[in-house]
Amino acid sequence: MMKRGILTLVNGDRGILNHVYIDNLVDGILLAVCNKKTGPAFNLTDNRTTTCRDFFEYYGRMLGRRRLRSAPYTLVKTGFHILAGFQRLTGNESWVLPDSISYLTRRGTYSIAKAREFLEFEPQVDLSVGMRRTEQWLIAEGLISVSGSAKS
Questions:
Q1: Is there a contact between 84 and 23 (Cβ–Cβ < 8 Å)?
Q2: Which residue in 34, 31, 55, 38 sits closest to 112, CA to CA?
Q3: What is d(CA 123, CA 113) in angstroms, rounded to the nearest whole number?
Q4: What is the DSSP letter of 142?
Q5: Residue 73 and residue 100: Cα distance in Å, rounded?
Q6: Which string of b and e fits 91-113 if b means at least 16 CB within 10 Å?
Q7: Distance of CA 103 to the CA centre of its chain
Q8: Rounded to an integer, what distance in angstroms lies between the CA atom of residue 94 and that of residue 82?
Q9: DSSP letter (8 states) at residue 92
Q10: Which whole-number Å values give the CA distances from 61 to 1, 82, 147, in the listed order?
Q11: Can you give the residue ranges of every domain in the chain?
């Protein structure tokens, strides 16, 4: 959506994302697999409260987008329902999930307290480093150019 210039934040970006960089996720999974004790289920995140705007602005910069749009929740949710319905009617597979709007506007975070306590999990890669690595990977894979524009 960002490549196409149609990514729209909802309600001015007040939603919170609970992201996890792949290296942190793998570290947590390995800790859980190697743990000899039986324990509870764990949440593995980067343990950082990040707004949707802060998160998606990283990708915007990678693609040379200066500004991200925002629209009211009801407008975006209604639009997604209409688009999903149209896709069903035309027999196309829907890539639009109206429930994703609710996910992107929620304010809650996931605690990693249990993972810290039982696994001694501590995320090692922070968001800025993870996004820098992600950008390098996207360039190496030819998905974006060094100048910051997406390849089709």
A1: no
A2: 31
A3: 12
A4: T
A5: 12
A6: eeeeebebeebeebbeeeeeebe
A7: 11
A8: 11
A9: P
A10: 14, 30, 10
A11: 8-140
Domain 8-140 has CATH 3.30.930.10: no
The helix or strand, by DSSP H or E, that contains position 57, with its residue range, turns out to be helix 52-62
DSSP state at residue 94? P
> Three-class SS string for 70-128?
EECHHHHHHHHHHHHHHHHHCCCCCCCCCHHHHHHHCCCCCCCHHHHHHHCCCCCCCHH
Q: Tokens 């890539």 label which residue?
A: 95
Q: Residue 11 gets which letter from DSSP?
A: G
Block residue for tokens 């996910």: 103
What is the 8-class DSSP label of residue 8?
E
pLDDT at 147: 61
pLDDT per position as a tens digit, 63-114: 988 788 888 888 888 887 788 788 788 887 766 676 778 788 888 889 999 9
- Report the alpha-carbon distance of residue 121 to residue 114 in Å, rounded: 9
SS3 117: helix
The SS3 of residue 69 is strand
What are residue 71's DSSP bridge partners?
10
